[in-house]
Design brief:
This is LRRNT domain-containing protein. It is a single-pass membrane protein. It holds the Pfam family LRR_8. The protein has one domain: Alpha-Beta Horseshoe (Leucine-rich repeat, LRR (right-handed beta-alpha superhelix)). The longest helix is centred in the N-terminal third of the chain and has 23 residues. About 5% of the residues have low confidence. The protein has about 210 residues and is of the alpha/beta class. Helix 3 links the parallel strand 9 and strand 10. It has an 8-stranded mixed β-sheet with strand order 1-2-3-4-5-7-9-10, with no helix packed on it. It has a two-stranded parallel sheet with strand order 6-8. It is elongated and about 65 Å long. It contains 4 helices and 10 strands, in the order H-E-E-E-H-E-E-E-E-E-E-H-E-H. Bound molecules: 2-acetamido-2-deoxy-beta-D-glucopyranose (NAG) (2 copies). The site of one 2-acetamido-2-deoxy-beta-D-glucopyranose has 3 residues, from loops. One 2-acetamido-2-deoxy-beta-D-glucopyranose (NAG) binds next to loops.
Length: about 210
């Protein structure tokens, strides 16, 4: 046993030094102001850069042209706490993409091209506190169980989307919700809307009437 460990030691040292160096690499054209932050804001990126340090906690990717997030993204970057994808070209979230997102606290998907939020998208996102999905002009569908699992969520933005209806169950499944934005959607006034309206009246203190 012992000689074997002695023989392995240089290899282990080599592997950990490779991992450490990797951990301190910064993707070209991005900024890494500290060991846990990678800032690729507004760099004209058309995909997620592939040399992001594995221990990244804050990843800023806003104002790019990124059309999709690889399905295993949060498997690789399991320490991510803050992910800003605002103002990109995302048109859908692959089912399972967020299925290992238990540390994520902040997620901004605003100003993208999402069309729906499917049921089960956030089942593992139990740490998420702020979720921004406003200004997605084709977002017309939020699944009944879309937000199941978001037990810590305090702030939810769904303003300026294409929602004509929203099942009130979606909002009732958010026990920690404090702030909600829904303005600027083309609501259809039918009996489903009546239920939503009742919920909104009872929870009007949570509703934020923003300008933008
Ligand atoms: C969105 O990103 C594009 C590309 O970087 C940029 O030109 C545009 O100003 C951004 N829009 C906003 C509202 O920030
Ligand atoms: C956004 O999605 C719509 C409908 O799915 C599509 O017609 C449009 O080309 C997309 N726009 C961009 C910028 O990807």
């Amino acid at each position: 046993m012992i000689p074997c460990i002695n023989w392995l030691q240089p290899f282990l040292a080599l592997i950990s030094s490779i991992l450490l160096t990797r951990g301190h690499n910064c993707p070209s054209s991005c900024l890494c102001p500290d060991h846990h932050t990678v800032d690729c804001t507004g760099k004209g990126l058309t995909r997620v850069p592939n040399s992001i340090p594995l221990n990244v906690r804050r990843l800023l990717l806003s104002n790019n042209w990124i059309p999709w997030i690889p399905e295993d993204f949060l498997v690789l970057y399991s320490d991510l706490v803050y992910l800003d994808l605002r103002n990109n070209s995302l048109s859908q979230l692959e089912p399972g993409t967020l299925s290992t997102s238990s540390r994520l606290v902040f997620l901004d998907l605003g100003s993208n091209n999402l069309t729906e939020i499917s049921s089960g998208t956030f089942v593992e996102s139990r740490s998420l506190i702020k979720l921004r999905v406003g200004n997605n002009p084709y977002l017309h569908m939020v699944g009944r169980d879309a937000f199941t699992g978001l037990t810590s969520l305090r702030e939810l933005e769904l303003q300026r989307n294409a929602l004509s209806a929203l099942d009130v169950v979606v909002l009732e499944s958010l026990p920690s919700l404090r702030m909600l934005r829904l303005e600027g959607n083309p609501w259809l006034c039918n009996c489903h809307f009546a239920k939503l309206f009742v919920w909104l009246s009872e929870n009007s203190h949570k509703l934020l009437k923003g300008k933008a």
